[in-house]
Amino acid sequence: MTPIIAITMGDAAGVGPEVIVKALMHREVYERCRPLVIGDARRIGQAAEIVQAKLTIHPLSGERLSDARFTPGVINCIDLALIPEDLPWGKISPIAGDAAYRYLKVAARLAMNGSIQAICTAPLNKEALHAGGHFFPGHTELLASLTGAGEVSMMLSTPKLRVVHVTTHIGLIDAIEKIDAALVERTIIRAHAALERAGIKNPRIGVCGINPHAGENGLFGRGEEGEKIVPAVEACRRKGWDVKGPLPADTLFFLAQRGDFDMVVAMYHDQGHGPVKVLGLESGVNITLGLPVIRTSVDHGTAFDIAGTGHADERSLLEAINQAIQLATVGIQAG
To answer: Peptide bond preceding 94: is omega within 30 degrees of 0, i.e. cis?
Structure first.
C-alpha cells in the first residue's frame, strides 16, 4: 500500500495553500502516495479558486483518516478551522503563526503513532510563529521539540547536491563559537547514516572549513579548522569512511555538484544554503536528520510578495513530496 504523506499548510498568509493545491493537481502524486493536508479546508478552497483548480476539498473532522478519499481530484484536509475567512494574504498574522504550529503538532502526533508515514511541510513564517506565541527558530527545531528528538541536522537536497549543516538558525559569530569537534563528528555520522539509508554504499563526504581557504594552514582565522574540524574528520576516517576535509568551501561545492562527493558538511547556515539556492529553489528540498519521523520540506519561504496571486511555483513541494515518498517507502520495506 502507498504511504500516507501528511502535508502541513504552513503559514496561511503565505504561498503554502497555493503550492499545495498546485502540487495536488498532478495526478501522478496520487499514484505514488496518499496525500493528506493538515490545515484549513476553507483556506485551501480559497487557494483553489485563485489558481483556478477544479478540485474537491474534502474536510475531515478530527483525525479520522478512515473517512479520507484518496483519489485524484480530491484534496483530503484535516480541517482545524483556525483561519478567518478574511485573513489577508501576504501579511504577518499571529493567528496564522499559531495555526502553523498547530498543524505541525497534529502531523507530529499522527507520525509518532504510525497513522502517517511522513510529514511534508509547506513554509511557515518565523516572525508570525513568534507573534503567535511559539518561540522556535523554524520547522526543524519545532519538530525536534514536538517529537522529543535530541540533536537534529538540516539537510538540503537537490538533484546535483546534498548539504548537511553543523549549525543553522543562529548568527555567524554564535555559530563559530558553537562548533566543536564533537558536534561536527555527530553531524557527519547523521549524514553518513542518511546516505546509507538512501542506498548509497560507501558514501563520499566532504567537510567544509570555516575560514577562507579552510584556514590556509593557520594563515586565516584562529586555528578553528585544526581545533574544531580535523579531529572529527579523523575520527570518522578511523571508522573506514570516505570523509575528506576540512576543504575550502568554494572548491568543495564545485566538486560536489560535479559529482565527486555525495554530501557536503557545511559549518553554518549561509555557507550551505547559498550554493543550493543558486542551483534552483524549484528543485531544493529540506530534510531533517535525527528525527524519529520522516520530514521533508520545500526549500523556500512564505513569499508574502506573491502570496494570493496564483504565481507561486509548486515544483519544490512536488520534489519534497517525492523525497518523502522515497524515504517512507524504504521505511515500509524495512518494517
So the answer is: no
Contact in structure between 207 and 261 (CB atoms under 8 Å):
no
- The tens digit of pLDDT for each residue in 85-102 reads 999 999 999 999 999 999
**Residue (of 10, 9, 13) closest to 86 by Cα position:** 13
Give the Cα separation of 107 and 8 in Å (integer).
7
Identify the three-state secondary structure at position 84: coil
Q: Which residues contact 189 (CB under 8 A, 6 or more apart)?
A: 236
Number of C-beta neighbours around residue 86 at 10 A? 5
How many Å apart are CA 169 and CA 189, to the nearest integer?
Answer: 21
Is the pTM for the entire model greater than 0.70? yes
**pLDDT tens readout for residues 172-228:** 999 999 999 999 999 999 999 999 988 899 999 999 999 999 888 888 988 999 999
Q: In terms of residues, how long is the chain?
A: 335
Q: Where are the alpha helices (DSSP H) in 86-244?
A: 94-112, 126-131, 139-147, 172-178, 181-197, 224, 230-237
Reference 152, options 165, 170, 162, 171; nearest CA is 165
Distance CA 80, CA 74 (A): 18
Residues 6 or more apart from 159 whose CB is under 8 A from it?
283
